[in-house]
């Protein structure tokens, strides 16, 4: 926290940190009780998985398309439009009366988030800011979202909070200026880049496939082993709070080693998840999860941005 006090409030780094913080509050607050909400409005287990898959696929397609366009045409327009559209998309999530409309609204949220996501990350790197610190501010936003969820435990209120924080991030994005860097044309499918970084992409993909399968039903799993909504939010908050601390500490480490450590720790975490019989047993596991994800995420980001 001493590092945060050294950031001038008028600096670019502080503004980027605040945009990331607000945006990640919105992501966490709207999703932490989403599987429980889906069940409440009649979703089956398959429906819950499809809702998560639709969100993820929409996010992937959008970030792939608009990340490429931002490489060619600049970042700021995509950052601003993505934040604005995300704020609107959250409103439709409140109005979803059934599983399929919730699926459609989550797909819209994922797509709108993807418009700004890749452009924002690249903007941070081009501005010369430290990616590890930037990522940690996002985790701090996740922690704030978990705290809000623990305090309210009301789905509609949390989605409204998501819309408001996204709108605030959109307003703050107008204080950012386009970085003067050379723009490049990027192939629709950059095969050379994919092949060169295949080991990183494949390892990250496989780990994230497993993780997403867990997170899609994690609140339902916790509820099934005795956790209340308050404890679900606290257990999630331990993970994201740990990420904030860890990412501050590891940003200067060797990226390749961080990736290796993150993958090994992830294997341990998900194996232990399968053995838990009470939600209290998962509290120390969440600390290891925070370290695992921080190492993998910061390591992969730094490696890819430095090498490409």
Structure description:
With about 300 residues, this protein is mainly α. The protein has 13 helices and no strands. The longest helix is centred in the first third of the chain and has 29 residues, at about 45-75.
Describe the secondary-structure layout.
Blueprint: H1 2-5, H2 12-31, H3 34-40, H4 45-73, H5 76-95, H6 99-126, H7 131-152, H8 155-172, H9 191-196, H10 198-224, H11 229-250, H12 255-273, H13 283-307
Question: Summary?
Answer:
The protein has 308 residues and is mostly helical.
Could you list some keywords that capture this structure?
globular, 308 residues, disordered N terminus, single chain, mainly alpha
Fraction of residues in helix: over 70%
The shape, in one word, is: globular
Mean pLDDT across residues: 88
**In percent, how much strand structure appears in the residues?**
under 5%
- Calculate Rg over CA atoms: 19 Å
How far do the termini sit from each other?
Answer: 32 Å
For the secondary structure, the number of strands is 0
Structural class: mainly alpha
Largest sheet: none
Low-confidence stretches: 1-9
Number of contiguous helices: 13
Give helix and strand order, one letter per element, not per position: HHHHHHHHHHHHH
